[in-house]
Every structure is written in structure tokens, then in C-alpha cells.
Design brief:
By secondary structure, this protein is an all-alpha fold. The chain is 46% helix and 0% strand. It has one domain.
């Protein structure tokens, strides 16, 4: 289902569980894959706050979320 998702491919290639584990972007808003037009559109449709949620995971960890 998600095999064509550029974000999923990127996370898998980097060996991370989520984008929160990405060391390439201290500021996740700078990631073009995560912050693309399509991602922003899905965030509006599904009313999600992906960047905020990923920042929270960075702070408290996956287990704490």
C-alpha cells in the first residue's frame, strides 16, 4: 500500500522507524518529502499535525507517545 510513498522509502532507506529518527533534518519542516504539497493536502484532509507529532516523538520517544 505505501510502497510508492517517498517518505516511507526515505525512512526505510535510512533505517529509521519514523521521520523523527532522521538525523539529516534537525528541523523537520525543511524536509521536502515530508513537507510536500501532497503531504500538506493529506494533513488538511485528515486533520493531522504530522510535524508536531514527529517533534513530540523526538521529545518523548515512540514508547511514550
Amino acid at each position: 500500500m505505501f510502497k510508492n510513498c517517498p517518505v516511507k522509502r526515505c525512512v526505510t532507506a535510512k533505517g529509521c522507524a519514523t521521520c523523527a529518527g532522521c538525523a539529516d533534518f534537525e528541523n523537520l519542516k525543511a524536509c521536502r518529502k515530508l513537507n510536500s504539497f501532497v503531504s500538506k493536502l493529506f494533513a488538511q484532509i485528515f486533520r493531522t499535525r504530522r510535524i508536531d507529532n514527529l517533534e513530540r516523538i523526538r521529545t518523548i520517544g515512540v514508547e511514550g507517545s
